[in-house]
Automatic annotation (TrEMBL):
Belongs to the methyltransferase superfamily. InterPro entries: Diverse_substrate_MTase, Methyltransf_11, SAM-dependent_MTases_sf. Residues 48-142 form the Methyltransferase type domain. Gene3D superfamilies: Vaccinia Virus protein VP39. Coiled coil: none annotated. This is Methyltransferase type 11 domain-containing protein. Pfam families: Methyltransf_11. One of its GO terms (molecular function) is S-adenosylmethionine-dependent methyltransferase activity. GO terms for biological process: methylation. Keywords: Methyltransferase, Transferase. The lineage of its organism: Bacteria, Bacillati, Bacillota, Bacilli, Bacillales. It comes from Jeotgalibacillus soli.
Amino acid sequence: MSNLKKDQVKSVFSKNADAYVKSTTHSQGNDLEQMISWIQPEPNWAALDLATGGGHVAKLLAPDMGIVFATDLTKDMLQNTASYLKHFPNIHYVVADAEDIPFIDDTFDVIACRIAAHHFPHPERFIQEVNRVLKPGGKFLFIDNIAPEDPELERFMNTFEEMRDPSHARALPISEWEDLLTKNHLSILKSNHTKKALPFQNWVTRTLDNETQIKAVTDFFSSASDNVKQHFEFIEENNLLQSFSLDHWMVLCEKKANKRS
């Protein structure tokens, strides 16, 4: 991960650590409900939660797994999350970069990464590392906001995401993620592409408290084309944006038993 982007990630998430623990966008969702049924965990398994943030995935996995390692690039975020999850003795916390995972090859039965990869400047390294530390036959559960395939819509999304959060790197379209997974011998078992509605004010103020910056993001949305408004499902009242929707992708993969990138 580039040093500049790393510093931006640490700055944003250190400042907003508690907000991400309490954020309904992160702490709730159908994807969390589906996760256990998709993974079918076993009590002797070891799991890795990459970029754990508020620890919602680690918390969900811990009761059904032997051991869970919750990792994050931001120490302050991880420290805060550990205080909330102190009643889960099998969760261990490691400051780690998802593009340079500090574990040996073929370590984990399950790896999960939820609503985080759009902060990774080198997604190809991330997927290579997932393949490296996942056991043959192991499962990788990936969830993130994804960009539309249409270039205009992708540009709009990645522009507003970085305006609102400088630690944002890039949201990729599904086709690019599928290509990376295939190249790294991760076979897709099942996937689900949905829309996720976000309340605009809650979303924009989670990372921004500067009125000038908030206005810039608000104005950017106001200037959107009809095509953009339709795709992102703008809901407006009295010419004020109340909510919009992002594309959301959940995919379960399995590492091929006889290959490693």
